[in-house]
Each structure stands twice: as C-alpha cells, then as structure tokens.
Design brief:
heterodimer, A: alpha/beta, B: mainly alpha, 2 domains, 79% helix
Chain lengths: 262, 273
C-alpha cells in the first residue's frame, strides 16, 4: 500500500532553540485510504502532529511527505475538523460548508459559475451525515452534535485526500458520539478518504481505526503501533466483544505507563 | 434606547382588568421620563428655587416655545457638526481598526500610541484646531471626530484580533492567504463589535461638538447655551440641554436599530465564548 502520509524522524521545537520540544524523533506512516488513530497522554504533541501534516508548522529536522510531496507550506489537500466546530455564525450551515471552496485554489475560480453543482454536493453531504434540509439554518440554531456533523461536511466538501480530525467528538454526549462514529465510519467506507484521528478516547480509536499509534509523553514520539484486526464493516456491537475490550485494555496500559515515565 | 419588543400581549384576555392589559415594560421608559419631570417640577415648587438657579421644566418648555427659531437652527447646526464628525470617525475608525487588527506587530506598536492619544482631553485640542482652522464648524466637526473614533478603532481591532485559532488553522491549511482570512472571517466577525461601538461613538461625538461650539463657534447649541448663560437666561440653557438629550437619544436609537438590522445574528449566537 503506498503511503499518503510519511513522517520521518521529525523534531519540532516551539519558541526558538531553548523552547519546548513538542515532538522528537517522530516517525509514522499512514497508507492511502487507511484510517489511522493517534492516542497518547495529554500534552504528547498530538496537535503538533496535526499541524505538521497539514503544513501549518514546518519541522526543524526530519521530513514530512504528504501525497508524494515534501511539505514546506500548507498542503490544501486536507480537510480539518476540531473539537470546537467553529461554524461562522453569520453564514447559514450551507454557506459554512461551502467556505473551503472559496479558498482552495482549484475550486475558488469555478465556484460562482458552478454554484449549483457545488450546492448539490453540499446537500448530498448533509444528507449523508443526517442533516438533510438543515442547510438554510444558521449554526446557532443547531445542537452541538448537529454542528459537529456540519463541521465534518465542511471538512469534506473540497474532496480532500486526507481528513485530519482533532478530537472532533470530545465535547459530545455518549450517544451522539456513537452516532457520529457511525457517520464517520460510513464516510470513510464510501469515499475512500484517508483519515488521521487524534483522540483521547481509546474505544473510539479502536472502533474506527485500522491502525493505532500510541504516543509517548512530551517530547512525543510513537511508542507502539497496533493494527486493529476487526473486520469491516464494524457494528457498534463489536465494542462488547472480548477481543475489543482486550485491545482497549492493552492501549490503556501502554498510555498509563507512558504517563508514569513522564 | 433599545426597543423592547417582548410580547406579553399573548397572555391577555379581554376579561382581565385594565392594569393587567397594559404592557408595562413597553410603557416604562415614557412613564419614568414623565416621572422625572414631575419630580423636578415639584422640587422647584417646594424649594422655591429661582429660575436663574434651577428653572422648573414648565419654564424650560416655555423657553423652548419662546425661542423655538434659534433653538431649532442651532440644534440643526449641532446635529450637522456631530454627524459629519461622527461619519468621518466611522470611516477612519473602521480603516484604522482594520489596519491595527491586521497584524500583531502593528497592534503592539500602535496600541500604546492610541491609548496615549485617547488620554488627552479633547477639549485641550480645541485651541490648536482654532489656530489651524479658525472658529466655526470645522473645529466642532474635528473635535467630534477625534473624540468618537477611538472606541470604533478599539472595537474593530478587537474583533479582528480574537479570531478563533482553529478557524484560522482550518483556512490556512486550505491555502488561505491573510487577505482571505480577513475577508471571510475577520471583517464579518468584527462587525458586531463595530456596530456596537457606534452607540458609544455617537454619544461621544455630541460631547466633542458641543464642547468645541461652546468655546470656539458662533453657531450651535453649545454656543447658544454659553451666550444664554452670559445673559442669565438659564431656562434657555436648560432648553439647550434638553434638545441635546433628545438628539442624543434619537441618534443612539438609530445606531441601536442599525446594529440590530446589520448583525442580529450576533445577539442570538454565542460568538463571544
């Protein structure tokens, strides 16, 4: 499987030579179409990883390659979603979702002429995440879970090859979270997009991912890599199987010992 | 003066007594105003203050009728200098606010200067303006401008400077330039701050124009009041104050209305978290 994301022995330090070393000797490879999850103790540089892969930060040493290109500037083939949905309150949900198209180089010039085509695409995405007919609502008229669904649509509208999710479900209640797990699982299956999910929730990582990277405490590096063996499509029921719980347990142990070392 | 549109009429049924059918919340501003004038009138009657110290409101209204022509002319003059100064402040304040909010370095460099400038009492600038432009409408307009543009600048710059870092990351990862982020997020985001600041700015603009008219003009309510004062025509001074209050309330209400029309979304969303 060719690698879409390849991070090789990367060091990233904030605030000059004497600053904090956020990640050190980080090496990680994610194949095209794969669903990767990154777990670790808090402050392990997971957000730094997000910024390295998207080209928002350029590492001091080491190489980040995304889609066969050495990352030296923002890559624009990614979609991002954070825990905070950051919908713009003066735009309708539909216009919020169309926002990336006004930015990305290859779409922004054809947006006006092909508005209908794009609106149809956005409405299709809304339907996929279960928000059919909510496009004309303003974000503040939606619940937190609905805003996060719209946020996923916004991250996907420009057909990114890579989707970066930074604890997107962290602020939601347990049932909404499980619903959105299924939404993201189905999106991944239907669109063949590569996903890197940064999360604190080990059950979330195990349920969704093909591959889980366990990171150490700061300065972050990959301690261990797990392939998740459960067959797809996965049902929520898989979480009550013994193998699933054993895996979560094992991950939990690894992170607990990573915290002790720190 | 924001208009209260809370609809309590829905709970009204014809059978209820009159006191329950009246929308007291809507009526309150008028009742309190009338109450203030009644209290004032009673105070003057009880204390027997001479009209040269504190004229009764009835005496003030009488002065308004008696001197209506000069009051009307000078009110329009003051309204004119205030709104022109305010309009310049809006344009300049918006431009400077956007400029300052553009980058952290500009913000850091100009902010102390702005604070220092704002700390200068604007009345102290009037003599300089008179040296430059002579007495009349120009110093009044400029004083109104100088005193009212600061809150606009600060509010617009704040709106720009408080963009959520996640929003910026999402857009920058897509290849957005600084200009894109400003146009798509920064400027719309700072609009509620901008329109909110207009209410403060218009009130300050009246302070500036009247101060300048008082010391350096032959027109306007400020000038009218200072010459009335020199003739001990105190009811006319109070008539001028009343006109200023009326103009101030009217302009404030206009700004509040514009704010609601332009950025009503900001009142219903939780943008400021």
């Amino acid at each position: 499987m060719p690698h879409l994301v390849s991070i090789d022995n990367v060091d990233m330090r904030y605030g000059g030579a004497a600053g904090t070393l956020a990640v050190s000797g980080l090496t990680m490879k994610v194949g095209k179409g794969e669903f990767a999850a990154v777990v670790g103790p808090s402050g392990c540089g997971k957000s730094t990883l997000m910024k390295l892969v998207t080209g928002l930060h350029i590492p001091q040493s080491g190489v980040v390659i995304v889609a066969d290109k050495h990352v030296t500037k923002p890559v624009s083939i990614v979609g991002m979603a954070f825990q905070n949905p950051t919908m713009l309150p003066w735009r309708t949900t539909l216009d919020n979702i169309l926002l990336p198209l006004e930015i990305v180089e290859r779409h922004r010039h054809r947006l006006r002429a092909n508005k209908r085509e794009y609106v149809e695409k956005a409405e299709h995405l809304l339907e996929t995440v279960g928000l059919k007919g909510f496009g004309s609502k303003f974000p503040w008229q939606l619940s937190g879970g609905m805003q996060q669904r719209a946020n996923l649509c916004r991250a996907l509208i420009h057909e990114p090859e890579l989707l970066m999710l930074d604890e997107p479900f962290g602020a939601l209640d347990a049932f909404t979270r499980e619903e959105l797990w299924c939404v993201i699982r189905d999106l991944h299956a239907a669109q063949g997009v590569t996903i890197i999910l940064v999360t604190h929730d080990l059950r979330e990582a195990t349920f969704l991912a093909d591959r889980i990277f366990v990171m150490s405490a700061r300065p972050g590096k990959v301690l261990k890599e797990h392939a998740v063996p459960f067959a797809r499509p996965r049902d929520l029921e898989v979480m009550y199987e013994k193998g699933f719980n054993d895996m979560v347990h094992e991950l939990h142990g690894e992170i607990a010992s990573a915290r002790v070392v720190a | 003066m924001s208009v209260v549109t809370e609809n309590t009429a829905a709970s009204v049924t014809p059978g209820k007594p009159l006191a329950r059918r009246i929308n007291w919340v809507k009526l309150a501003p008028w009742l309190y105003t009338v109450g203030l004038f009644v209290l004032w009138e009673l105070l003057v009657i009880v204390l027997q203050t001479p009209p040269t110290i504190l004229p009764a409101p009835s005496r003030v209204f009488q002065a308004i009728v008696q001197y209506w022509s000069p009051i009307w002319k000078n009110s329009l003059q003051t309204l004119y200098t205030t709104t022109v100064g305010f309009a310049i402040a809006v344009v300049a304040g918006l431009a400077i606010g956007l400029f300052i909010g553009w980058s952290k370095a500009i913000y850091a460099g100009l902010y102390p200067l702005m604070i220092g400038f704002n700390a200068i009492p604007k009345v102290a600038l009037v003599p300089i303006l008179v040296i430059w432009f002579g007495i009349g409408a120009v110093p009044a307009i400029l004083t109104a401008f100088l005193i009212s543009f600061f809150p606009i600048v600060v509010n617009v710059a704040t709106g720009l400077a408080t963009i959520e870092p996640e929003t910026e990351d999402v857009l920058r990862a897509l290849g957005a330039k600084k200009l894109d982020i400003m146009l798509k997020v920064g400027i719309p985001r700072s609009m509620p701050y901008f329109f909110g600041s207009l209410k403060i700015a218009i009130t300050l603009a009246f302070v500036g124009s009247v101060v300048s008219e008082t010391v350096a003009s032959n027109y306007g309510l400020g000038n009218m009041m200072s010459s009335a004062q020199s003739q001990f025509n105190v009811p006319l001074v109070f008539a001028g104050l009343l006109m200023l209050a009326v103009e101030g309330i009217a302009m404030y209400a206009l700004m509040a209305w514009i704010e609601m029309r332009m950025t009503g979304w900001a009142h219903r969303s939780s943008m400021s978290h």
